[in-house]
């Protein structure tokens, strides 16, 4: 094959005589671009992209383009005019222009004028200079093919450069070329280049924008003057967030959004509450003055910048319900909570659910880059169990985290938003001092989310006018930054001056707006958009569940014939379905259980609990790292065809009405998934919502949710939650990390009947416990120390009658026919150790020892416990036996309950492992020795 430049020198390669050759070469290029010579590869790339990025280009269009270029080249050659001759130099420069366009799209954000802090010189971006592409100022008036650049096919280089700089180097820096989907990339490209990064606003909209900025600045200045030195975590420096949120709500409502769930930390929260959600300023002022009342269900209350709020506002498309989630001081940990709440709301809706409920997460720059929960939440975005149709992320970028501002200290990446690239989210870095550019990216980001149902990020680059809190002095650690900030006018002032220059407002009008807002703060109920009544909005209400305690009655019985019918339904498989032989054996055993030939094991009793709830029209959601099958091969809620790999979920065949059964194998995350399920349970009071840890101690990685949300949410915020947490717990000689769910930590958190901590030991107990959790009107979190080896223990079984009748028993008395009068010692225990003590007692025939199981450790069932102990009038010793070391487990958290229940003549003592820094030993032999010793201590 001849070299292309040889063809150009001898005769134009684009002549009609070479059409077949060119077609063949182009086909070869489409199959493998590297198989053709570089100069042709560059030329074909320009042709291929000329159809605005469509993945396939009709060959007729390419042939037409080639013929046209051939005619132009021949005409120029015959005319003797060399300006447009298709020479090797021109091809090289055209290639340079194509690369220039690409680099502006790729690197333009590095040169963008989007940082209001200009006290530091902007780093040079050499790969955007003309010389980098073999071009110079002499080429500015040369006309080049624009390729995929939005607009005319050919433009002078000067105009190409102007369009690129306006689009990619103005107030907006865009990152989107990391996205793999070509169609998505070209959608963003066209939206950016068509508008050149500008939004067209009429005079009314510009005045509205100034009013919103006036409100954002006004509330901060008012609070600063009235409540000097009090913490409020001011928004000053990023006031453009307020018009951003207002535009977002209005545009989202126009596109069908009916609910928006918002998560954000402290910065700007009070401003959002007053100016967006419509909280009465007077109520906020009472919180500053310490005279505000707590929520009706709260006992401790919380600081004002942690509080949530909800309201209904009118949008251009209808009423939008806004819900700002309660948030502790743990910043980004609200992220998966919001996602779970959104998913619960979406699950109640129809085909438009992804548009009707929109998650919005407002991050801090240092927190987004620094906290791993952000990555865990992003990693959920496209998974089936946790997908919410895309989240709109907004970063309040102060360019400082407390006192850390330098990039080398705050993060290891150029931007705080780089973590979002893991889900190929486009990122728009926008100057917070240019509110019109902020409005443009708001519209673009929302339209992107609604079109593609994927995450998108707005990086609102501003600054922090005050310190981390208003009592802080930031100039002590950032003297240069704050010298600039103190002399830098606010965005409201900058925009007001701009509108005066544009003659949109008259001199003095901005000051009148400021004074009117200040007067409204002191006289009006609401200073935001009007709040509208929306009594029909809520599809789930928590009102029926307030005021009930854990001992509220619940009928958890199920008729035996119903259980049998459900059991048979669960055992049916589709015709031709081939299950794994081990699964077949389990299902055969369950069939015998249904026939009464064998007692029921744990896995089947749990499955029947779900089935019975579904048959009553109540939904069940279960998620965890191996929840479909069960970590310990006991559940098999989803069965797989051994030949085809197709899955089948028997529990979905028993649902009634709108009830759903959902079980998900989660991503390898504890914190993110537990936070998600917590959020789900706070928005869905009428379903059984369960998070299951793979091993109980894995919940250590999610401790923030246990401490700051699950155990204390009601005390702080009056927020009910009924999440069930299954934590496999038990000492089987598997070492320190697979033994203990850290029972002591949960008991330490127990107070004011805030959570339930249970250690069931029989299939009937877990059956009634799970049913009780959703059938009674009480809504409290439930922490279950669930078993591992007990799942197949020959004694840990129940009859079908025990499931059909009775209820969950917080305390279980001795099961052997002992003479109560002869009992002098009562051994108390919880969990698996009971069976070891029982076997040893029977072997020793120590009939003077009774064994009592405490199945609910909190709230402690004092009445039932006293009633059982009263059966043993000659008791002299009360022994608490546990597997855990003495400084762990329940002993130190529960022994005062025993002292309150017995007289002074009874000795109370401990039997268990000695104190230990680790939960368990690593040697199986040593484990067995310790187990034998603690059982002997309990009985001796």
From TrEMBL:
Coiled coil: none
GO molecular function, one term: thiamine pyrophosphate binding
The enzyme's E.C. designation: 1.2.4.2
Keywords linked to the UniProt accession: Oxidoreductase, Thiamine pyrophosphate
Domain Transketolase-like pyrimidine-binding: 600-793
Keyword flag Oxidoreductase: yes
GO biological process terms held by the UniProt record: tricarboxylic acid cycle
Pfam family, one: 2-oxogl_dehyd_N
UniProt KW Endoplasmic reticulum keyword: no
Cofactors that this protein relies on: thiamine diphosphate
One term under GO cellular component: cytosol
UniProt cross-references to InterPro entries, sorted A to Z: 2-oxogl_dehyd_N, 2oxoglutarate_DH_E1, DH_E1, ODO-1/KGD_C, Transketolase-like_Pyr-bd
UniProt function note: E1 component of the 2-oxoglutarate dehydrogenase (OGDH) complex which catalyzes the decarboxylation of 2-oxoglutarate, the first step in the conversion of 2-oxoglutarate to succinyl-CoA and CO(2).
Family indicated by similarity: Belongs to the alpha-ketoglutarate dehydrogenase family.
Name by which UniProt lists this protein: 2-oxoglutarate dehydrogenase E1 component
Native species: Methylogaea oryzae
């Amino acid at each position: 094959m001849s070299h292309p430049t040889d063809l150009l020198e001898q005769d134009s390669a684009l002549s009609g005589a070479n059409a077949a050759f060119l077609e063949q070469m182009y086909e070869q290029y489409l199959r493998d671009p590297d198989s053709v010579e570089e100069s042709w590869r560059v030329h074909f790339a320009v042709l291929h992209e000329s159809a605005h990025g469509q993945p396939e280009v009709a060959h007729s269009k390419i042939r037409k383009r080639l013929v046209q270029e051939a005619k132009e080249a021949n005409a120029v050659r015959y005319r003797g005019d060399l300006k447009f001759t298709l020479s090797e130099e021109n091809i090289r420069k055209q290639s340079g222009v194509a690369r220039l366009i690409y680099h502006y799209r790729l690197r333009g954000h590095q040169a963008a004028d989007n940082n209001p802090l200009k006290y530091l010189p902007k780093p040079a971006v050499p790969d955007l200079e003309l010389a980098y592409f073999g071009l110079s100022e002499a080429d500015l008036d040369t006309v080049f093919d624009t390729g995929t650049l939005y607009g005319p096919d050919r433009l002078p280089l000067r105009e190409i450069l102007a369009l690129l700089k306006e689009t990619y180097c103005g107030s907006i820096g865009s990152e989107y070329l990391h996205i793999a989907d070509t169609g998505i990339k070209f959608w963003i490209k066209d939206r950016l280049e068509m508008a050149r990064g500008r939004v067209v606003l009429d005079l009314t909209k510009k005045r509205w924008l100034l009013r919103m900025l006036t409100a954002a600045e006004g509330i901060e200045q008012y609070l600063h003057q009235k409540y000097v030195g009090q913490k409020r975590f001011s928004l000053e420096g990023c006031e453009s967030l307020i018009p951003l949120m207002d535009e977002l709500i209005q545009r989202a409502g126009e596109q069908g959004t009916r609910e928006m769930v918002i998560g954000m930390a402290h910065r700007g929260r009070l401003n959002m509450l007053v100016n967006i959600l419509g909280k009465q300023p007077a109520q906020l002022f009472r919180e500053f003055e310490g005279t505000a009342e707590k929520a009706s269900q709260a006992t401790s209350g919380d600081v004002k910048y942690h509080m949530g709020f909800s309201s209904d506002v009118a949008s251009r498309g209808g009423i939008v319900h806004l819900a700002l989630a309660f948030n502790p001081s743990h910043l980004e940990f609200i992220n998966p909570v919001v996602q779970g709440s959104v998913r619960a709301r979406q699950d109640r809706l129809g085909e438009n659910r992804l548009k009707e409920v929109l998650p919005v997460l407002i991050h801090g720059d240092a927190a987004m880059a620094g906290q791993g929960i952000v990555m865990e939440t992003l990693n959920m975005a496209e998974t089936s169990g946790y997908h919410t149709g895309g989240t709109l992320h907004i970063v309040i970028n102060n360019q400082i985290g407390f006192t850390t501002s330098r990039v080398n200290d705050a993060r290891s990446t150029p931007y705080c938003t780089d973590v979002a690239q893991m889900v190929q989210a486009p990122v728009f870095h926008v100057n917070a001092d240019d509110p019109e550019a902020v409005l443009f990216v708001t519209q673009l980001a929302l339209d992107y989310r609604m079109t593609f149902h994927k995450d998108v990020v707005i990086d609102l680059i501003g600054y922090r006018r005050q310190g981390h809190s208003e009592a802080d002095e930031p100039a002590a650690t950032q003297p240069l930054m704050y010298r600039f900030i103190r002399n830098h006018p606010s965005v409201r002032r900058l925009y007001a001056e701009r509108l005066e220059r544009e003659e949109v407002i008259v001199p003095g009008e901005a000051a009148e707006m400021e004074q009117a807002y200040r007067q409204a703060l002191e006289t009006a109920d609401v200073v935001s958009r009007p709040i509208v009544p929306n009594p029909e909005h809520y599809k789930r209400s928590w009102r029926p569940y307030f005021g009930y305690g854990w001992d509220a009655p619940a009928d958890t019985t199920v008729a035996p014939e119903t259980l049998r019918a459900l059991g048979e339904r669960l055992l049916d498989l589709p015709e031709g379905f081939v299950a794994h032989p081990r699964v077949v054996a389990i299902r055969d055993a369950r069939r015998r259980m249904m026939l009464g030939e064998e007692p029921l094991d744990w896995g089947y009793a749990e499955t029947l609990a779900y089935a019975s709830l579904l048959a009553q029209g109540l939904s069940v959601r279960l998620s965890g790292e191996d929840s479909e099958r069960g970590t310990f091969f006991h559940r098999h809620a989803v069965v797989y065809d051994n030949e085809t790999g197709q899955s089948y979920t028997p529990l979905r065949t028993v649902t009634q009405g709108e009830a759903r059964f959902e079980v998900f194998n989660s991503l390898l995350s504890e914190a993110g998934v537990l936070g998600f399920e917590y959020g789900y349970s706070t928005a869905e009071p009428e379903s059984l919502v369960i998070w299951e840890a793979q091993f109980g101690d894995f919940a250590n990685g999610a401790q923030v949710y246990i401490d700051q949300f699950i155990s204390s949410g009601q005390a702080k915020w009056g927020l009910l939650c009924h999440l069930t947490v299954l934590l496999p717990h038990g000492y089987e000689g598997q070492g320190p990390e697979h033994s203990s769910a850290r029972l002591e930590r949960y008991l330490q958190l127990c107070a004011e009947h805030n959570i339930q901590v249970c250690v069931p030991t029989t299939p009937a107990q877990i059956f009634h416990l799970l049913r009780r959790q959703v059938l009674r009107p009480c809504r409290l979190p439930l922490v279950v120390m669930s078993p591992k080896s007990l799942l197949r223990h020959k004694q840990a079984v129940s009859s079908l009658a025990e499931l059909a009748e009775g209820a969950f028993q917080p305390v279980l008395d001795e099961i052997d026919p002992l003479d109560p009068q002869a009992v002098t010692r009562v051994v108390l225990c919880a969990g698996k150790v009971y069976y070891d003590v029982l076997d040893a007692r029977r072997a020793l025939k120590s009939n003077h020892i009774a064994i009592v199981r405490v199945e609910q450790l909190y709230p402690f069932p004092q009445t039932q416990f006293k009633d059982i102990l009263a059966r043993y009038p000659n008791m002299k010793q009360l022994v608490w036996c546990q597997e855990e070391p003495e400084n762990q487990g329940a002993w130190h958290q529960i022994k005062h309950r025993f002292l309150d229940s017995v007289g002074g003549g009874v000795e109370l003592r401990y039997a268990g492992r000695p104190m230990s820094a680790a939960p368990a030993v690593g040697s199986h032999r040593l484990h067995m020795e310790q187990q034998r010793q603690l059982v002997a201590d309990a009985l001796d």
